[in-house]
C-alpha cells in the first residue's frame, strides 16, 4: 500500500513538472505573438501610406501634364506592384498569426487536460490515504479487542 502511495506521489510530482513546462511554453508563445502583432500593425500602416501615395499619383495623372505623364504611369505601375507585394506579405503574416493562435489554444487545452489529470491523481491519492487510515484503525481495533 505504501509503495502505491509513493508511486502516486512520484506521478503527481511528474505531472506538476509537466504543468510547469507547459506554462513556460505558453508564456514563450505569447512572447512570440507580441512582436508579430507589432509587425502586422507596421505593415498595415505602410499599406495605408502606399494607398495614399497611389491616390496622389492618380490625381496627378488626371491633371494630365504631358511631360510627366509617362513617368507617372511608370511610377504608378511600380507602386501597384509594391502594393500587391505588401498585401501578400500581410496575408502571410496573418496566416502565421492565426497558426500561432491555434497553437496557443491547443496548448491551453493540453494544460487544462493536465490539470484535470492532476486533480484526478490527487483524489486517488487521498482515497488511498483514507484506505490506509481505515486499515490502521481496523488493526488498532483488533489489538484493543484482544
Automatic annotation (TrEMBL):
<feature type="transmembrane region" description="Helical">
    <location>
        <begin position="124"/>
        <end position="145"/>
    </location>
</feature>
<keyword id="KW-0812">Transmembrane</keyword>
<feature type="transmembrane region" description="Helical">
    <location>
        <begin position="97"/>
        <end position="117"/>
    </location>
</feature>
<feature type="transmembrane region" description="Helical">
    <location>
        <begin position="70"/>
        <end position="91"/>
    </location>
</feature>
<protein>
    <submittedName>
        <fullName>Uncharacterized protein</fullName>
    </submittedName>
</protein>
<feature type="transmembrane region" description="Helical">
    <location>
        <begin position="41"/>
        <end position="63"/>
    </location>
</feature>
<keyword id="KW-1133">Transmembrane helix</keyword>
<keyword id="KW-0472">Membrane</keyword>
